[in-house]
Records
---
Amino acid sequence: MQKKIGVIWGDCSSVEIVEQAVNVLKTIEKKYSHSFEYIDIAMGGQAIDLYGDPLPSHELDKCLSCDSVLLGAIGGPKWEGLPGEKRPEKGLLRLRAGMGLYSNNRPAKIWPQLADASPLKKEIVDKGIDFIIVRELIGGVYFGNHETHEENGELKAIDSMPYSEHEIRRIGKIGFETAMKRNKKLCMVDKANVLDTSRLWRKVMDELKKEYPEVEYSVMFVDNCAMQICKNPSQFDVIVTENMFGDILSDEASEITGSIGMIPSSSLGDGTRGLYEPIHGSAPDIAGKDIVNPIACILSAAMMLQYSFDLKEEAKDIEKAVNAVLNQGYRTQDMMSENMKLVGCKQMGQLIVNEI
Amino acid sequence: MQKKIGVIWGDCSSVEIVEQAVNVLKTIEKKYSHSFEYIDIAMGGQAIDLYGDPLPSHELDKCLSCDSVLLGAIGGPKWEGLPGEKRPEKGLLRLRAGMGLYSNNRPAKIWPQLADASPLKKEIVDKGIDFIIVRELIGGVYFGNHETHEENGELKAIDSMPYSEHEIRRIGKIGFETAMKRNKKLCMVDKANVLDTSRLWRKVMDELKKEYPEVEYSVMFVDNCAMQICKNPSQFDVIVTENMFGDILSDEASEITGSIGMIPSSSLGDGTRGLYEPIHGSAPDIAGKDIVNPIACILSAAMMLQYSFDLKEEAKDIEKAVNAVLNQGYRTQDMMSENMKLVGCKQMGQLIVNEI
Ligand SMILES: CC(C)[C@H](C(=O)O)[C@@H](O)C(=O)O
Ligand SMILES: CC(C)[C@H](C(=O)O)[C@@H](O)C(=O)O
């Protein structure tokens, strides 16, 4: 199979993990006789340094000419003082919108080898943590109007949070379809006692649910959900929610698995072209030290093979290799525990390559 | 001391807890020779049933004529289908705004007797959980414009999230003042990489912090904060944040203490008149069964004595009584564990009254 893969090297320690993920992809390429072309793309801090813009249109165009895009993570203290439009994060938001990636899938799953790293009690973890948050990614307050103006002699800022029916319907469908492939439970999270957008979500979801009679559908307020994720995470199968709530809840959900350095994510739109990236950030504090965990990025590459290129066997191969290396007791610093073997980013990548 | 106390009996199981809290207040009244007048106020579902409006202006006026107001909790399935303006919650929001209560204080604190009930691991709990979330209560998306209209043949909803400098400054001050009375650490939580309102919060807080050089001030993104509350809650002393983030984070924070049935809250404005209520909801599923935990409501009454009436000794007296009853092993169902003595709502209230 011939594919063009966009590679966003990202900022700070991101470069180190992307390097390992690309090594893994190259290994898969050889083993299965595929031919992947890697296109370097600058986005975030790197693009600001190069072009004074976190996502110049020529870089977005490159992404759109690829079959899929792999990303590490962006941002860092160097770019923190910049105004809204010039921040690294703005590049990511524009990339999501420019590629039409409305559906962000964030699995929250315990790796048995790392179960001890969860901040939750064993009795809660033992009931199982294995759910997916389907987050709407290019609507809501992230993409509404933002403005700051003077009023009565002081500044006033207003962010607006818009949602229209078709935006809700397309992500709602992904929620139901995801549930159908899993345990057929879908929970929609909102704040319908306060927000008009949430009430519109309820209306559209109520219409959609008729098309999925097998799915056990429920609704939950976001404040309650933030509690339930700590209290009783085993109740969840698939959660679908709007952009901002999805941001907050998926971070909480990844934390309770105790393995945030292990969690990949996919962002997809209507076609098969996607953006694949770890859940974690660019970890500026440990950049250049060869201690960052490359596994979330490597698993993101695996997700790309599976969901964008339909290369299921290849994806499984990577996951098995990761599993094997963990079983052999190798750990990066972030997941280190007693009696395990501490390795750096490069060595972890190499171990996984060797397994493949 | 003579005081007029507004009493909102609330909906579902709320009535049962308010009854116990009023009994406790009456006991304090006698013991310390105060004279409290209790004014019944209808708000929420009860007001909808009586007047077709969750907070008629005559009921708000009654609140404004009182020295302070005690509330249980409102809402329930009976009123769920109603349109936005007619919901029980709207009464609460209008009450907060009408009384000018911009500062909501929500303590997250482990009760040593209930430490086992936390969903977090013992090693995390043992480091200590004792922080306060200061939530802005009458601004942001709760009080912005909400609208739904037709556009391009479909419905579109927009919620707007406004903040102006004076709204941020007054709550920011409360944040710093609260930190000064505690361990002098203040963390402001926002989403400044996305929201204009958050960037305005940063500007105002940066100005304010100069007036509090002793306070160690930091900022954190809301998604990261949702993780940190699970991972390392002992890092927090005081968190200050906008309305919606405060809603989500304070629920998560109360959950990790494992004692949500024990957590009171205060809402204050510029004067001493406040609204005091438990963090938990109206628990419709257990209404009328005499099993709801009245302690959060009783402790809310204690907070009222302390913060609105400056009756510190009386407040301490109530807290001590609660502590003693817990030490004697009495528990309501929600906090029941092995070898403890199960009691109902009424008996729990009576035990606390007896202690006083
Ligand atoms: C970097 C930031 C804008 C982004 C978001 O909030 O979407 C990040 O937190 C994420 O979740 O991918
Ligand atoms: C009932 C609801 C509107 C309210 C809120 O979101 O403020 C509640 O969740 C709370 O936190 O007091």
---
Amino acid sequence: MLLLSRSLNNLYKSSSILQSRKISTSIDVTKLSTTRTSTPKPQTPKANLVFGATTSDHMLEIDWDEKNGWHAPVISPYHPLSLDPACNVFHYGIEAFEGTKCYKDANGNLRLFRPELNMKRLAHSMVTLSLPPLDQGGFLACIRKLVEMDKNWVPDGEGFSLYLRPTVIGTQPTLGVTKSKNCKLFTIACPVGPYYPEGFKPVKLLAESQFVRAFHGGTGDSKLGGNYAPTIRVQAAAAQQGYSQVLWLYGAKKLVTEVGTMNFFCFWTNKKGEKELITAPLDGTILPGVTRQSMLDLARRWGEFKVTEAEFSIHEVIDAVKDGRVIECFGGGTAAVVSPIRQISFEGKTFDIPLHPSNPNAGAGVLTKRYWDTLADIQYGRNDHGFPSWSQII
Amino acid sequence: MLLLSRSLNNLYKSSSILQSRKISTSIDVTKLSTTRTSTPKPQTPKANLVFGATTSDHMLEIDWDEKNGWHAPVISPYHPLSLDPACNVFHYGIEAFEGTKCYKDANGNLRLFRPELNMKRLAHSMVTLSLPPLDQGGFLACIRKLVEMDKNWVPDGEGFSLYLRPTVIGTQPTLGVTKSKNCKLFTIACPVGPYYPEGFKPVKLLAESQFVRAFHGGTGDSKLGGNYAPTIRVQAAAAQQGYSQVLWLYGAKKLVTEVGTMNFFCFWTNKKGEKELITAPLDGTILPGVTRQSMLDLARRWGEFKVTEAEFSIHEVIDAVKDGRVIECFGGGTAAVVSPIRQISFEGKTFDIPLHPSNPNAGAGVLTKRYWDTLADIQYGRNDHGFPSWSQII
């Protein structure tokens, strides 16, 4: 595989040769053109917001082609994309996306949460797709401009935000399965409300090993469209049985991986008797979640229990449940932020996961609730909890 | 997993309940509307045809939505698709495609080759994507009409054909990762020439085990866009090292799977001393190729050697090369039809694959050439070789 790595390096070198031909390798926010809508859309009342169903007034587009590199960015009224039906996004899944939120703080400031981690992940997804190197700072600067244009679309209040969907698609209009000579970055925005309007709603997970989300040598660590389509039928079947999400397992050991829309955390007393927060390691099969990273960073700063990124199996979780060693389980992801877990089903048997040690009416465990409160403090700019760089005023 | 199968069945039952509400579950060719272009495109000279780069004058579209089912089919002048940027085809890889060819015979008849196998595979891909059941006969009837509209786009001559690209994409314009409430079937057509204008050009394969194309519990047996995007960078790296294609391996045993654009066949004397044609079995990781099936069907009819669909590893192929037991290796797929293989590289070592036992200038082995001639006979309507149903006059 040395040969392969060397060739991948050569591909990058040949793209740097192209730079000498005045190809634009940067996304230049100073060249941004903006057209404001003359017919603003009516806004959905906050109580009626459904995730991803309402889009804002404007969108950002940045085209790239092999000869010219990145074109000047454009913000214009939200509109359909007009694409040749031979474009490779329709045939070969050349697409990747990100999800991040813009929050309004009590002073009316708009804030992004660690958006550079989304840009870094998108750049990685674009490498996986053989798309050009992403100018992460340039793209983020343009996204900030989009938020400014649509600032009246950022709802206020705890749990409300403007969900941003940076996306890249292949736009070469030919059917060869080759490196795309054209692509389009775009960003749309959706006002969203809290996942749990009446407080936490702990979820039930179906642990699944027949169908597999990602695999070693695959693309589980990139946020590609193709990772999501196959999960829908498994998710739908789980929902029919009353489970809100699928907990994806991997391999003969039935390793716990992630939930697809969020990463999975178990807070337990391990076999050595230590309190430990454990989540699957970034071994290529796991999406490197921004919320996941923030939860790990917070726990390591708190220094109150062991924090572990390592392989663990569903059998180990079940054994710990049976031994009374599981304290809480929860998911972490941008959409729901923190999701308490109250039940896991595996091979026809259902296991109750503890929520709170003393309050039977609590919707979430102590650590789960602490994460929720801490992240909300940071995201809405009330308290940076020692991480002043995470919440960034636009 | 019984529970899961039961739920999937329930999903289908609930879709049959919908039928009672007069949802159109069939694609009705009698409702087809056609608009002929008023500005026919100039045609690319046959010698300049590049695979998938030239499209014909018309395209077929059939929309589906959850409330109404399949809409009336439409053939109209080739045009861009206009799609909301929130459509799930751009975000979650809800897309699948087929490839089949229309051949012109010596009498000027247009012929399709086993197109019902493409429809069957597309129907399977749509199940994988949680899309509605496909009316295979109805869709094929509409595709035949498209070919009739574009009959002047079918080039004549051995190796020439009109490549048809039936495609389905998710068109629901919301960001939820759920069963799509809207989709669009479409078909575009590209005149194509022979892969090897000056006769066979035997290819070199790079056997790859670091990156994996498909996996058990995944979608390797469906023709989804998401299966292709991740292969491009591996293919590009292989091309930089002088290999035309990647031979994808799987698992610790390094099983031989397929080439991505074609299935892989080894014709050898096995360890028992029997002449045997072997290819990977349809275990969920392999695309069920129409050419693959036809090669197996022909060999079984010939009855001259053992025909096996079974797991075999790259180590077994290499051992057979070293022992002088490999007679020929070749690939089979719609685009190139038959590709002789002259070299396989694995873990830095290169192995020469025999082409022809007596003619050092032959571009292909005896069996490879026989497949090429036989399939061309059938596809161009010269001789059905005992399979009168395979080549179908439009």
